Amino acid sequence: MTTPEIDRLLKQLTDKDPSIRRSAAEALGKLGPLAANAVPSLGKALRDENKHVVFDAAFALGRIGTASVPVLVESLKNGDLEVRRRSLEAIRMVGHRAIDAVPALAHSLRDAASEIRCYAAEALRKIGRAAKDAIPELMLALKDEKVDVRRAASEALGDMGAEAVPPLVKALRDEDPNVRFDAAHALGRIGPASAGAVPALIEAAQKDVASVRQISAEALGNIGPAAEVAVPALTKLLKDESSEVRASAAKALGRIGKGAVHALIGTLSDTDARVRRRAVLALGQIGPNAAEAVPALTELLGDESVRAQAADALRDIGPSAAGAVPKLMELLKDDAGDVSRAAADALGSIGTAAVDPLTGALAGGDQHTRLRALTALTAVGEKAGKAATAIATCLKDEDERVRFNAARALEKLGPGAKPAENALKQALKDEDEDVRYWAGEALKRISG
What pLDDT, on the 0 to 100 scale, is given for residue 350? Predict the structure, then answer.
């Protein structure tokens, strides 16, 4: 699109004053794709004698997007280092839409300047899996004399999918720990398709420096159940001298699944709260298959640093966590909102075994406890039918929030709310509109 405004800015791009040329390039960039007709002129501005104008022209081309790619690719042949660098930055801005630049970027991985080789790898990473034709050149870049280039190549390969796994496995043996870290991180980003890298990641997790051990454990977790063979090695890492490594191992075990439960239970007594929290979250991820962890998680309900997370894990385990009900009922009264909320969610998920204690809380608890108990009973739903009469008494509570939650809980009971029918009819006259609404919905469900 050409407009008088764009024409004016194009003219300013050739002004003698570099500050005006800069302002014009910046303004064209703000127009984005609408300034596609300015691409040739901005391409010329990439060769401007003023490096600041070159920067603004490249930035504008990056914001314009796909239409800029041919000009930017051509600029990669320029003998000026600054022009090539800014062109690569612009291609990186275009990102996955710059597919047509892949061959030129692959060629730039052999540029004499290591800085350009780095930028080329980073641009390929932004393009992602669509740049897989550059994998052979990225593999060669993994042998580059410069560490930064090898690191950038590893990062780029992490977005290329399964085809990049073999070269990344080789990079796990690089002499520089930073490259090994990036290779493990890339394998983790590829995820389950990196299953073939599990043996190499296990070795790195056991023998490398702390940062590589940590990221290798995390990568194994991202691979998921296909990395179950790593459970013994990750279990050993739960006693690693580094708390970061222990935390990542616990997180990984949670993603791998059922086979890790016993090891995670042992980690619940770790001296570092962050590690305990990771182990708790991992058991929650495993869910009902982590039932044997219920006693240990119940004990952690007394640990202020992780009790909310422990309650969440018990929620995820569900009915098998019935043994935790007494402790969870105590937390229901806790003043800390996140703790009592987590306890209510857990009791609601446990279900039938929690109904009697929750019913008792409606009669003997304070306002806060009644609200949390009603939230839990709402989650229990139709299985909480025997609490109908107790819930009905809450329809007369002076607090409208209690009445509202009582009406909602009765609606969830369905036909089981029959004993509360008369109380619900009275609630149809409640001063609060939401209470009236849910009372009406509950009566509809009772009548079918």
Answer: 96
- Determine the pLDDT at residue 262: 86
What's this model's pTM, rounded to 2 decimal places?
0.71
End-to-end, the C-alpha distance of the chain in Å comes to 62
Contacts of 283 (CB under 8 A, 6+ apart): 254, 261, 264, 265, 290, 293, 297, 313, 317
Q: Which residue has the tokens 């709260």?
A: 273
Low-confidence ranges of the chain (pLDDT < 50): none
Task: Please report the pLDDT score of residue 50 as a whole number.
Answer: 93
Cα 171 from Cα 180, distance rounded (Å): 6
Q: Which pLDDT value is given to residue 428? A: 95
Q: What is the pLDDT of residues 378-422, one digit of tens each?
A: 999 999 999 999 999 999 999 999 999 999 999 999 999 999 999
Q: What is the pLDDT, as a whole number, of residue 83?
A: 94
Q: What would the two tokens of residue 265 be?
A: 């239970």
- Total residue count of the chain as it appears in this document: 448
The alpha carbons of the chain give a radius of gyration, in whole angstroms, of 31
pLDDT for res 4: 87
CB 124 within 8 A of CB 134: yes
Provide the pLDDT for residue 57: 96
Q: What is the pLDDT of residue 1?
A: 55
Structure tokens at 32: 């984005």
Per the CB < 8 A criterion, the answer to whether 57 and 22 are in contact is no
Copy the structure tokens of residue 273: 């709260």
pLDDT computed for residue 335 by the predictor: 76
Interatomic CA distance for residues 33 and 212, integer angstroms? 42
Contacts of 147 (CB under 8 A, 6+ apart): 176, 178, 179
Instruction: Give Cα separations from 201 to 183, 207, 213, 241, 320 (angstroms).
Output: 10, 10, 9, 19, 35
Q: Is 174:180 a contact under the CB 8 Å cutoff? A: yes
Q: Which amino acid is at 394?
A: C
